[in-house]
Amino acid sequence: MIANFFLAMPGLWSIILIVVVILLIFGGKKIPELMRGLGGGIKEFKEASKDENDKKEDTNNIES
């Protein structure tokens, strides 16, 4: 089971190849903008899921 997990993980050369391809496609100046947008999206998702959990907890407290 564990051996299958490690076989599915990308190796060092695969990671290097992926980074080089991303640099070629987007260029060095565009990558920080993409990462900033990705971070903002993750932050919004976490806030939305936290708000949803808070609403569920409030509903459970009111019903109790």
Number of helices: 3
Helix content: over 70%
What's the structural domain tally?
1
Strand content: under 5%
Uncertain stretches of 5 or more adjacent residues? none
- CA distance, first residue to last residue: 44 Å
Rg over CA atoms, rounded to whole Å, is: 20 Å
Write down the overall mean pLDDT: 80
Subunit arrangement of the protein: single chain
Class computed from helices, strands and strand pairing: mainly alpha
**What is the H-and-E element order?**
HHH
Main sheet characteristics: none
Would you report the number of β strands?
0
Net shape: flat
How does this model look, in words?
This protein is mainly α and 64 residues long. It has one domain. Helices cover 88% and strands 0% of the residues. It is built from three helices and no strands. The longest helix has 34 residues. It is flat. Keywords: Cell inner membrane, Cell membrane, Membrane, Protein transport, Translocation, Transmembrane, Transmembrane helix, Transport.
